[in-house]
Amino acid sequence: MPELPEVEVVRRGLAQHAVGRTIAQVEVFSDRAVRRHPGGRSDFEAILAGRTIEGVSRRGKYLWFVLDEGDAVLAHLGMSGQFRVGAGSEGATATAAGPEFHPHLRVRFHFADDGPELDFLDQRTFGGLAFAHGGAELPHEIAHIARDPMDPEFDLGAAIRTVRAKRTEIKRALLDQTVVSGIGNIYADESLWRAKVHFRRPTRSMTVASVRAVLEAATTVMDDALAVGGTSFDALYVNVNGESGYFDRSLDAYGQAGLPCRRCGATIIREAFMNRSSFRCPRCQRRPRGLAD
Q1: Same domain, 172 and 237
Q2: 216-231 confidence digits (pLDDT tens)
Q3: Do residues 284 and 263 make contact, with C-beta atoms less than 8 angstroms apart?
């Protein structure tokens, strides 16, 4: 699933290509793509016609189009959602009647100018769009989502206090979007590797300095990922121009099982965690005393 750097790359691309443009028509090709919109497909199409996109904002892994009159279109990419500018029928199979739509096209935005359309593609259909009345500043649907480390108003001290007050393990706290948003499995593992912290360390046993080190590592690793377009393991994550990110080449822990740790040379191991995987260096990130396998 795209995490904060990947969503921020998409947000920047949308800001470049969509801000200032007026929507002439919206076509919804899949009810599932607007399942979170109470009015359904027809209402979503009708309510956006004639509206102007004034900005593109983000909170954690969510982004939204800031519309005129104080409204918004809230979007979540899910596992495979993509916004593509001018994708047209790319990837479709040509027929005698002409090219078909992209096989994963779910929503298309047509604009009043002569510029390219904006498509929302989603292979696995876990993502989606919804109109958010009065949501230009912050859609109420995501008001519970915490600020992320890249947010100018992110309060590091408050985040440290919240993490230490939790009766949980550090990686679970990092993945809790009400504690700190934007961090997923990839960047949690990378942050913990950089801070030399075991993913199951109890948060209440951590010092202020150790929690600070993890959150600062998260900021640094996501900044590094953002600089190279995020992490792309396959074609399910690309930016609005269809380009992949390259941070997968710089990963130190995530997906590196069986390879030597770049810091100490020990073999990176993979362990089960919340129906997914966690990767760590057994020497740099030692298991806390008393913690069972």
Answers
A1: yes
A2: 999 999 988 888 776 6
A3: yes
CATH number where 54 lies:
3.20.190.10
Number of Cβ atoms within 10 Å of the Cβ of 181 = 24
In a domain, 169, yes or no: yes
Residue 231 in domain: yes
Amino acid symbol at 64: W
Q: Active site includes 61?
A: yes
Is 3 among the residues known to form the active site?
yes
Query: Residue 198, annotated ligand binder?
Result: no
> Is residue 276 annotated as a catalytic residue, yes or no?
yes
Specify whether 90 is catalytic: no
Which pLDDT tens digit goes with each residue over 144-199? 999 999 899 999 999 999 999 999 999 999 999 999 999 999 999 999 999 999 99
Consult the annotation and say whether 166 binds a ligand: yes
Q: Which of the 8 DSSP states describes residue 50?
A: T
